[in-house]
Amino acid sequence: MTSVGYTRYTLRLPRAAAGAAGPREDLQPDDWSGSAAFAVNADPVDYVHPDAVALVASLQPAGWQEEDDGDTLVFWLTAEAGAERRAQGVLRRLVRLGELTTEPQRPGWETAWQEFHRPQTVGRFFVRPPWCDPEPGLLDLVIDAGQAFGTGGHATTRQCLEAIQGIAPGSLLDVGCGSGVVALAALRLGFAPVWGVDFDAAAVRAAIENAARNGLEADFRVADATDPGSLLPQADVVVANIALGPILRLAARFAGGEQGVASGGAGPAPGGAAEAAEAGLHLLRPQRLLLAGLLVGQVDEAVAAYPAYREAARRDDGEWALVHLVRSG
Question: Which of 89, 170, 247, 326 has the highest CB neighbour count under 10 A?
């Protein structure tokens, strides 16, 4: 069997071009979704060089990453993909944006990351890659993240896994589901039904594959949960491991009592569910909210965006934090 050959492309961009994304000090590097960082439809404000990122993403690379605070983009293409006429046109456009160099990759580079994907014990869970054995006495979760975020190793994922173990099972919606690890863990705990949404199709594919690996059934779908017009299922518990920016945008989806929420912001607005529906705003009314992906100093701002909820608990590791909100009244 012939191995596939890959080429590493390195695009070095001038720092002056960062103005397209706003002043560098205003960027929030933590403003990721639960999905892969390389999502094609990512919000351009998340990148220092959004035009270059969009071009790289359009190539559908085997993988890509930002380096040098976003001023360098590294991506990988197969020799066949790089030789395609459309790809050659995109590469010429990238050359006009910065300095583009290439380097053949040794076989096996695409799986080298596996040595960093190690099993994780989180409370009652043993989260492991497919090539590791289960741990007797622990709830087994087989997760192959592939190109999606979420192996159980990141502090924010661990905080979500820890938090759901202290909640009575009910229905659950995982916003920014990534690899599906939190949604699948919820199913292991007896939550049902369980849904997961992510704006990245690659993440949803990974989640569906992981569900099959575990013999579990969850409803994973592609959706932008921060779009107040997108339809999402009602659930008793909503987990949103997505960071401050999207958490603030997501707040427009929530209301308590008979109050609606203004689609342009996070605060309450006059009117109820009927008025909200007429305005194209589909509200969510979970009893509990788990907001994660937050830096410790961002928690209060996140809580303030959900006035229909009160804080029940928060946990942090000194850098990352999760806050547990319960609907008031």
Answer: 247
